[in-house]
Task: structure prediction
Amino acid sequence: ILILKDGKLVFEEYFYEHTINKLHELRSATKSFVSALTGIAIDKGFIKSKNETILSFFPEYTIANNFEEKKKITIENLLSNQSGLDCDVSNPNSVGNETTMNNSDDWVQFTLDLPMTESAGGKGMYCSGNPITLGKIIEKTTKQSLPEFAKENLFHPLAIKSFVWNFKPDKSSVETFCQVYLTSRAMAKFGL
Result:
């Protein structure tokens, strides 16, 4: 437990096997880091704006279900989980469920190939493929790995030195889910 008040750490206590230096799985909280890195990439001019359409970043892919509505999906739609792609984790019948994605050879291709169930910018649906695709867009535009871009542009300015992030969006990450691992203090810094 860490409590920050008025910008200062006022309480810190660790339990069970956790220590001040232990790295924690962030699981879906990693999405917040991808979101922050997207903002940094926009601010630095690597990505022009949140309104850029995502398919334009992947000319090397032949996209399945490539209807006009899919061509309208923007960076902002991925950030807000309003891509309209059929990957709603709350729907067990969704063709884009995480288990199927995790066992695919290319999680970005898998995500981009999904059929649409909603219009882009419409109903919000929790979809892990959205931040995974954003991570790949950051890599392509910055010409750096996502962890390296994070180290230079987010972690270093926050004086976060200890982290692990293996961002390989394919079935080699089926156990780690491309998540970042940080200490509790690093998470508190990011939150602050």
DSSP finds seven helices and five strands in the chain.
